[in-house]
Design a protein that fits this description.
The protein has 402 residues and is mainly beta. Helix content is 13%, strand content 39%. The strands form seven sheets. Strands 10-11-12-13-19-18-17-16 form an eight-stranded antiparallel barrel. A five-stranded antiparallel β-sheet has the order 5-4-3-6-9, with no helix packed on it. A hairpin with a 6-residue loop joins β22 and β23.
């Protein structure tokens, strides 16, 4: 799509300031979710090589299974920057064919090249590693990444890396006798489409064996494991590795450029959130193995600060052991802006404890008060200018007049 730069997007009808061209792009992606329609056709959610879901296909009579590779013909591939990461979507995705399991998947770089060629745009590469991007994503987005109801589903995987093709056939017990790398991936649903996640560093396979097969599941009271936040991921991960392990080939999600990886679900169930602060997050897990109150804290260890996950001996919810006013005053003194306040079973409340910066409308230049201009409690950091009615966020102008 080509648009006059300073024009608004029309919500209805046609416009002489917008032109649309058609051009098919071929995407080879992995099926991460499969749905059957009432008419007997199939719709698939398709992921690129890094595991990010580009979208759902149009309904097709071609049947494939989760893990299969499909070639999809899309009229357009799009990319945008969202919370410091690339997000891909597509238009008119028609399933073309089923490809052999070893077929190389379309990479994000290839998809970006399609979008750039199609739309004449470019995305800046800031040189961040994936872990740095994940840390930045969570630091900027944590207060928007909780389920509005306060609850959702979770899954906990063992993620094995550095495997040969023959080693992917080994059982979990057999893999634990090797010296391969394994860590835990805790993934939690916060919307109908997305998960947030936390990587748990489990140590060596010997340490995991001595802990009875998993150090997080059998974590002693008040002991903690180091971890790191993950980038937002598609909700299809909730079903991965339950019935059978998911194996990915070199270059695909979770694997290295030369070795395979394997995902096995260790536990799953539901969860509820408790209090969330900038450096403290409280979760109440209800799985078969992971049960109770868990916390993630940004704590000093060995002269630096790291994220630690643990199951405290004291299982009292934070909101019952602390007074809201005291916590708000503490955060104000630290210059922190947000607090999510919740008890298990209650709808969480997002509280803006710090003073927001003054806002300027990017269209007319008027100065406005954030509280008065906020669009709705259902939108985070989205505002409407009272003068020209322009809708925008402090980071990205949406270009809408309503």
């Amino acid at each position: 799509m080509v648009k006059v730069a300073d024009s608004d997007y029309p919500l209805t009808g046609r416009s002489s300031k917008i032109a649309k061209l058609k051009n098919f792009k071929e995407i080879r992606g992995r099926v991460v979710e499969k749905r059957k329609t009432e008419a007997g056709a199939y719709v698939y959610d398709i992921a690129l090589s890094d595991g990010s879901v580009i979208g759902s296909t149009y309904a097709t009579r071609l049947e494939a299974n989760v893990g299969d590779i499909l070639e999809v013909r899309a009229a357009e591939v799009k990319v945008k920057e969202e919370d410091g990461r690339r997000v891909f979507t597509w238009d008119n995705p028609i399933v073309a064919s089923l490809k052999p399991r070893g077929t190389a998947l379309t990479t994000p770089e290839q998809a970006e090249a399609m979008a750039r060629k199609r739309r004449g745009m470019a995305v800046e590469d800031e040189g961040e590693t994936r872990s740095e991007a994940a840390e930045k994503f969570w630091a900027e987005s944590w207060h928007r990444s909780f389920p509005p109801s306060g609850k959702g589903e979770f899954v906990y995987h063992h993620h094995w890396r550095g495997l040969s093709e023959e080693e992917t056939k080994l059982s979990e017990e057999e893999l634990l006798q090797t010296e391969h790398s394994v860590h835990g991936d805790l993934r939690l649903q916060f919307s109908d489409e997305a998960l947030f996640g936390f990587t748990v560093f489990l140590g060596t396979t010997e340490e995991v064996r001595k802990a009875g097969g998993d150090r997080l599941v059998n974590l002693p009271p008040d002991d903690k494991l180091q971890g790191a936040w993950k980038l937002s991921q598609p909700v299809a991960w909730l079903k991965v590795g339950r019935d059978k392990p998911m194996v990915t080939a070199p270059g695909e999600v979770g694997a290295t450029s030369e070795k395979y990886s394997k995902f096995l679900a260790q536990d799953w169930g539901t969860y509820q959130i408790g209090v969330w602060r900038e450096h403290f997050f409280e979760l109440f897990l209800n799985g078969k193995k992971l049960k109770g109150r868990y916390t993630m804290q940004y704590a000093p260890v060995g002269g630096r600060r790291v994220w630690l996950i643990g199951k405290p001996k004291d299982q009292t919810p934070y909101a019952e052991a602390n007074k809201l006013d005291d916590v708000v005053n503490e955060l104000k003194g630290k210059g922190q802006r947000y607090l999510v306040w919740a008890r298990p079973g209650e709808k969480p409340e997002l509280i803006e404890v710090g003073k927001a910066e003054q806002l300027t409308c990017p269209k007319c230049g008027d100065t406005l008060e954030p509280g008065a201009a906020k669009l709705s409690d259902n939108f985070h950091d989205v505002f409407r200018c009272p003068g020209c009615k322009h809708i925008f966020s402090p980071c990205v102008s949406l270009g809408l007049n309503l």
